[in-house]
């Protein structure tokens, strides 16, 4: 009888785990990311660095739960959530293209990003991406610190200015399906140990 119960429990947990949806992010109203600026730095004529063009943004408005402001202003992009948003999934990931006028295919010293964030990196992340000339997408930088943070970060050192470049506010759902599976396996393990102890 005990073997039948164990078999039923195992089958039930195996059937129910795929039905358990992975939990999406729950976002409270407030600001989440501020791209203060992005610049490409070039090599100078005598080996030093010189600032190249700054990036411009053209994204502004409401995109799913996210409100993007100052989209037409040089070098700034604010991302907030005006009202609480529940069940936000990866399909709501926000893409913010960056335009660098006059840059194309030349060797650059670095890409410099000035940023501020206020989020849980287990739910969302600010990321800088670029598309390479071969069509592949390359993650250049991501901000993984929780809470209110700010800083300046260089990336893409000594590479060619392949593009386009774009930021992502990447929404990351919590994998509760995996957690349910582990919980079910843990319960099954306890049941098996009790069974062995009773014998």
Secondary structure elements and pairings:
Elements: H1 2-16, E1 25-27, E2 30-43, E3 49-54, E4 56-57, E5 61-63, E6 66-69, E7 77-81, E8 85-88, E9 94-99, E10 107-108, E11 110-119, E12 124-131, E13 137-143, E14 147-155, E15 159-160, E16 165-171, H2 176-198
Antiparallel strand pairs: 1-8, 2-3, 2-7, 2-11, 4-9, 5-6, 6-7, 9-16, 10-15, 11-14, 12-13, 12-16
Average pLDDT, all residues: 80
Structural Rg:
24 Å
Pick out the low-confidence regions. 4-21, 176-188
- Terminal CA distance: 14 Å
Helix percent band: 10-25%
Number of beta strands: 16
Total helix count?
2
Strand content: over 45%
The biggest beta sheet, please? 7 strands, antiparallel
SSE string, helices as H and strands as E: HEEEEEEEEEEEEEEEEH
What shape does the CA trace take? elongated
The class by helix and strand makeup works out as alpha+beta
Indicate how many domains the architecture comprises.
2
